[in-house]
Design brief:
With 292 residues, the chain is of the alpha+beta class. The protein is 37% helix and 26% strand. The chain has 3 domains: 52 residues, no CATH class; 104 residues, no CATH class; 112 residues. The chain contains 10 helices and 13 strands. Strands 12-11-10-9-8-7-6-5-13 form a 9-stranded antiparallel β-sheet, with no helix packed on it. It has a 4-stranded antiparallel β-sheet with strand order 1-2-3-4. Strand 2 and strand 3 form a beta hairpin. The radius of gyration is 26 Å and the shape is elongated.
Amino acid sequence: MKPWQSIIRQKCPNTRRQTVFATLRRCAAAPLVRIRMKLITATILAFAIILSFSCPLWSAEPSFENTVKKFIKVVARKDRKALANLVSYPLQRRVPLSSIDNPKQFLEAYDEIVDEKIIKSISTSKVSADWSEMGWRGIMFQNGPLWLDEEGKITAINYQTEKGKRKRAELIEADKQKLHASLRDFIEPILEWETAKYRIRIDKITDVTFRYAVWPVQKKSSETPDLILRNGTLTFDGSGGNHHYDFKSGEVLYRCLVWVIGDADTPPGEVEIYKRKKLVLNQPVMKVIKGR
């Protein structure tokens, strides 16, 4: 099989493939004066390569539509076990709710994750109107309450059921009571880490600002922190999800980097301290207590 034939077979469905082959054969058979057959072959190969990148309607959309339609059918059946098997684990949830690591945990927390409202919304959705391909990030439902990968498995559920909201509120209140009294005023916890030397916690104080607290690693978060910094900021590093929090104290910058995407040996995060813009400390996260 010629290289260009192989490309077309991979990229174009059967319904379009024969039309493409016929068009290319007509091009090859057309009377060309003083042009060698090598040039014809090169032209056809170039055309096939361009075709492979410029025909999303021939290859990507049918697969995307079929993937979404199959998922909608599973949801419409209200088959909890089938839905639990359509999750890419672990499924992260908003802190301090624990992640869901397997189908058994999904079924146990089912009513905290999905309810009749989102089931109906998905069941009655239209692929063209309610679902979008978002490149390497996957397939987005509406404005992002649920995401699928290219295989049709759930990668994220940002939707909150009423039961899930209540449980999260209860966990946040219980978390506040375990903290030192100076740290109980916050909207929601973001993360709590341990490095080789430090215990670090970040909380959301307002809609746009964050608080940083640090202890020696052997101390508990119920004890007085060695340092508290407020008015921290959040910055996203590209579109992959990696982000960092910055906190300043005079000429010293404290930075917590959260690695969502990385290599197999990439730590969950890193803590960096800069003095006068010079890096003076870098420690990888050894243990995640809350958050990522």
